[in-house]
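To illustrate the input format used throughout this study, we show a single complete record. The first block contains the structure-token representation of the backbone; no residue identities are included at this stage. The design step must infer an amino acid for every position from geometry alone.
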């Protein structure tokens, strides 16, 4: 990475500093350390602060810049109570449960409603969570995480009470919070929706896709699998948790192209999806993304392991891949007059150009493909 040194440090002559990979990693670690330290979590744009620190250290290597950095930016963490409204859950008196306090909405300790902070229905109580730090936003987020954890455990534990219905366990945190009457804020829910006005070019985009021609009641095996995938994809779009959305998207992809008898399921699914893209469009994306998400994330989650964290951007990209796969699936089935999924999979497994994809993966796919491709070439169709 090469960046220009801050003008007020470098002087009149424009200078640039080139960083090696380990130095870039060190800067990234420094930013993470700042954000993890309550004394410095208040910093806005910590990346810029760390870059300025690195630039000063390079320009004056004999000076102790760390001491001055700490003196300039350190703040003493403050302890406070964050008040988080809870929707669809009522208490008649203060309850201390699972690490948080639940207060009736008329409790005098709760800041008055106003600004961002709201106690309007369906709020039924307020979670009071002790937290500390130097950034109100980050303090509120930590309090929210504690409250979400406590409500999650409360929800599951309450199900043991046979007098409680499942629908009564859908209580949740509201989007607002307050520390006092002067300091309040809000955060978006993961499953929040935005308004959409439909018309114009949007209608053309809809009708140009094979999905638009899917019937309400499919009669063929191809149609039924496509409808199943469509339903899983819809669940993914409505899910707020990226991991849950990813699982739903894989259920859709497996409904279209999966094979329960395969040993290396990640390889088979990624290979077949790539082959489908090639047959439908003449091109394809690198299959390693699907392989990694299936092998490292999907499989870990489904088999009771702790799955790696994934971002909404990763899931959004994968969702586009699955959507394209559904359209390609319908197009190829229509072009070949296929009504059974097994016949479509045979078209992919026995395609004349399969050997070209095998050769491409041996060159560009990396060692993760070696065992699968050896078996593929020795046993016929995938």
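Output of the design step:
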């Amino acid at each position: 990475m090469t960046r220009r040194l801050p003008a007020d440090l470098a002087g009149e002559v424009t200078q640039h500093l080139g960083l090696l990979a380990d130095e870039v990693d060190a800067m990234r670690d420094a930013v993470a350390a700042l954000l993890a330290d309550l004394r410095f979590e208040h910093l806005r744009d910590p990346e810029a602060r760390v870059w300025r620190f690195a630039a000063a250290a390079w320009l004056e290597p004999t000076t102790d810049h760390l001491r001055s950095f700490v003196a300039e930016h350190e703040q003493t963490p403050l302890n406070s109570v964050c008040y988080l409204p809870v929707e669809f859950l009522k208490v008649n008196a203060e309850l201390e449960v699972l690490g948080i306090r639940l207060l009736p909405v008329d409790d005098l300790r709760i800041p008055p409603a106003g600004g961002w902070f709201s106690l309007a229905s369906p709020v039924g109580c307020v979670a009071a969570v002790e937290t500390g730090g130097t950034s109100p936003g980050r303090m509120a987020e930590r309090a929210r995480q504690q409250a979400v954890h406590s409500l999650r455990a409360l929800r599951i534990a309450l199900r043991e009470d046979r007098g409680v219905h499942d629908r009564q366990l859908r209580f949740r945190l509201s989007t607002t919070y307050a520390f006092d009457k002067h300091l309040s804020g809000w955060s978006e829910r993961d499953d929040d929706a935005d308004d959409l006005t439909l018309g114009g070019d949007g209608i053309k985009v809809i009708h140009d896709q094979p999905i638009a021609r899917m019937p309400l009641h499919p009669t063929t095996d191809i149609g039924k699998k496509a409808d199943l995938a469509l339903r899983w994809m819809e669940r993914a779009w409505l899910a707020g948790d990226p991991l849950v959305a990813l699982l739903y998207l894989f259920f859709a992809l497996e409904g279209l192209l999966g094979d329960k008898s395969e040993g290396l399921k990640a390889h088979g699914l990624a290979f077949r999806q790539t082959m489908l893209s090639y047959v439908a469009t003449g091109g394809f994306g690198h299959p390693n993304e699907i392989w990694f998400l299936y092998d490292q994330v999907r499989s870990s989650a489904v088999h009771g392991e702790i799955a790696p964290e994934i971002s909404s951007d990763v899931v959004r990209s994968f969702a586009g891949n699955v959507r394209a796969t559904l359209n390609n699936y319908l197009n190829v089935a229509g072009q070949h007059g296929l009504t059974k999924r097994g016949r479509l999979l045979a078209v992919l497994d026995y395609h004349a150009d399969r050997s070209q994809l095998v050769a491409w993966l041996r060159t560009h796919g990396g060692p993760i493909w070696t065992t699968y491709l050896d078996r593929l070439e020795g046993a016929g169709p995938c």
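Structural context for interpreting the output: Strands lie at 2-4, 16-18, 78-87, 95-97, 100-104, 123-133, 172-173, 176-180, 183-186. Residues 225 and 256 are 6 Å apart (CA to CA).
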